[in-house]
Design brief:
The protein is of the alpha/beta class. Helix content is 36%, strand content 18%.
């Protein structure tokens, strides 16, 4: 592999003070031996960078990775089969010197264009793979790049393969004018057909991903991953600064910024990329390749008598709010394997009050969505005390629609005092976000199970409980609003919360009797993480039974039965 153009060369200082005869004299260094890290500005031995995964050994900054090296780092050994090499560029607008530049780059890089496409196995799973290479005209998207990506996606659709594209691009290729612009529409249309066929598309955003690539195939992944610190945006930082006449804040348009604002599912370190992709691919296998279902016998506990202790409603309200009570993260850890958290609503932000992602349950891929609380003040502040904002509900719905596409059952854990009430939430449409969840969940074409593990407060809880079945833990609650709010509205006296709790019939036993919930699970005397193993075992058995029954239901029957469940209330 030629390294001449892989890294920027260090500028040599002019011969001035300190140099004999006014001329700069330096030791002879063999060509290509050293390179410079653009992050820390240190000179580094090139071989150390290459063997270290194109990561600076001094500051751990990322170098841009050539496509062949990227493929070797991701694909199973000797499995990559290149597709569509040798498509000729036509110089559509007759730009002077452009064909000569393209030919020169072919010689120096060994590439035929700015993207390499083909098929490879990743952890044994066949995948269509596209990798952009910044050494070729900054991986700008011209007609050949667009054509290669489109052909790859079309072939993947025919062969029913998932698609992974590693993006790296300066955007549209100026030398090709409007023809370059058309590649945005062409690649997006091909990906729509691939998606409509129920197939998985993953994008991995690397530094930089900008312009027309960002505004087309880079941001259309079912799952969007990014490398740390990657520049990602439509307009480049320099263009924005020139346009608005302002200095941009530190970290603007970096991976971390996009994750915070809801556009990236997860930031993955380069060393962990192959493993992460393997886990995601495994959970999206279908047909004959589908992971084996569990064979353990399900014991139906529908008619099992639950031991309900004699406690007042207000006692159960207080127990449901205890800080040492297990929270959603504990259930995810206890019940599921290979959990991959996915972030963001793709509109505005990522809401830490709702945690969601994909996992396996007894070998079956599922989507898990949970309202998240903490067990101390710091954790609760981090999760906004389990009170979701509009972007939290939109994230939940995004993940549910993704589950529908891939026929994954959805399991929700409900634990919220209610949706967040605040100016910002109203500005961003809190009511609309909740309403949209109710609307879409009612007809979601995949099984949905909701489990109330703590507080189930008002519409904020219902937005994750329009399900085939709703289960509750013995000392959890589910109500129109908090007892304090109920007493304040109806009696103008929030101090009558204990009395209100009794009137509201918000306990699990009450709701089971009313037909609002299907199952209630007994809790130990003092329910903590240390004492939750029996409940976890019971939930595991019952979830398995639920999935065995509902995952095989006819889709229309499933949707109709969910409609009738709420129709009779």
């Amino acid at each position: 592999m030629k390294l001449d153009n892989m890294f920027k060369k260090t500028r040599r200082p002019s011969g001035k003070k300190g140099h004999i005869g006014g001329k700069h004299q330096s030791p002879e260094v063999p060509e290509g031996l050293l390179c410079k890290c653009n992050k820390c500005q240190k000179a580094i031995i090139t071989e150390d960078v290459i063997t270290g995964g194109y990561i600076c050994p001094k500051c751990h900054g990322y170098f841009r990775m050539p496509a062949p090296e990227r493929i070797r780092s991701i694909a199973d050994e000797d499995t990559f089969e290149e597709w569509d090499r040798g498509i000729e560029n036509t110089n559509p607008i007759g730009y002077k010197g452009y064909p000569e530049k393209v030919e020169a780059l072919k010689q120096t890089t060994g590439l035929d264009e700015a993207v390499v496409t083909g098929k490879a196995a990743i952890h044994g799973i066949e995948t269509a793979l596209g990798v952009c290479d910044g050494r070729f005209l900054m991986a700008s998207m011209g007609e050949v790049v667009g054509e290669k990506i489109t052909r790859m996606v079309e072939r993947a659709t025919e062969e029913k393969l998932p698609v992974i594209i590693f993006t790296c691009s300066g955007g549209a290729r100026m030398q090709e004018g409007i023809v370059s612009l058309m590649q945005m529409a062409k690649t997006s249309a091909a990906l729509k057909r691939h998606s409509d066929a129920g197939l998985l598309y993953i994008t991995v955003l690397t530094d930089p991903t900008t312009g027309g690539v960002t505004a087309s195939f880079a941001m259309l992944g079912d799952i969007i991953l990014a490398e740390p610190g990657a520049l990602i945006g439509f307009a480049g930082p320099r263009v924005i600064e020139q346009t608005i006449g302002q200095k941009l804040p530190k970290g603007f348009q970096r991976s971390e910024f996009l994750k915070e604002h809801g556009f990236v599912d997860q930031i993955v370190e380069r060393q962990k990329m192959r493993q992460t992709l393997g886990k995601i691919l495994k959970m999206h296998q279908t047909g004959s390749e589908k992971v084996e279902k569990a064979t353990k016998e399900f014991q139906n506990s529908q008619n099992r008598k639950t031991r309900l202790k004699t406690l007042e409603a207000w006692d159960r309200v207080q127990i449901s709010r205890r800080n040492d009570r297990p929270v959603a993260g504990h259930y995810i850890e206890a019940l599921f394997q290979d959990f991959v958290e996915l972030h963001g609503d793709r509109y505005f932000a990522d809401d830490p009050a709702i945690v969601g992602g994909i996992a396996t349950f007894h070998g079956r891929a599922v989507t898990v969505i949970a309202q998240a609380k903490g067990q101390n003040t710091k954790e609760n502040i981090g999760h906004n005390f389990g009170m979701p904002s509009p972007e939290g509900y939109r994230k939940a719905l995004r993940l549910m629609k993704q589950a529908e596409k891939f026929h994954r059952p959805v399991i929700c854990f409900v634990d919220t005092p209610g949706a967040f009430c605040g100016i910002s939430a109203e500005e961003r449409g809190q009511g609309e976000a909740i309403a949209r969840n109710l609307y879409e969940m009612s007809a979601l074409k995949t099984p949905i199970l909701s489990i109330v593990i703590g507080e189930g407060g008002s519409g904020g809880a219902l937005a994750m409980a329009v399900s085939d079945q709703v289960w509750m833990l013995e000392n959890s609650i589910y109500s129109i609003l908090s007892p304090e709010g109920f007493a304040s509205i109806l009696w103008k006296d929030s101090t009558k919360a204990a009395q209100a709790a009794k009137v509201m019939r918000l306990t699990a036993a009450d709701l089971k009797e009313m037909g609002i919930v299907e199952k209630v699970f007994a809790e130990p005397e003092h329910f903590t993480v240390e004492t939750m193993s029996n409940i976890a075992d019971e939930l595991e058995k019952n979830i398995e039974g639920y999935l065995e029954e509902y995952a095989n239901k006819d889709i229309q029957e499933l949707v109709d039965s969910r409609y009738e469940r709420f129709r009779r209330m």
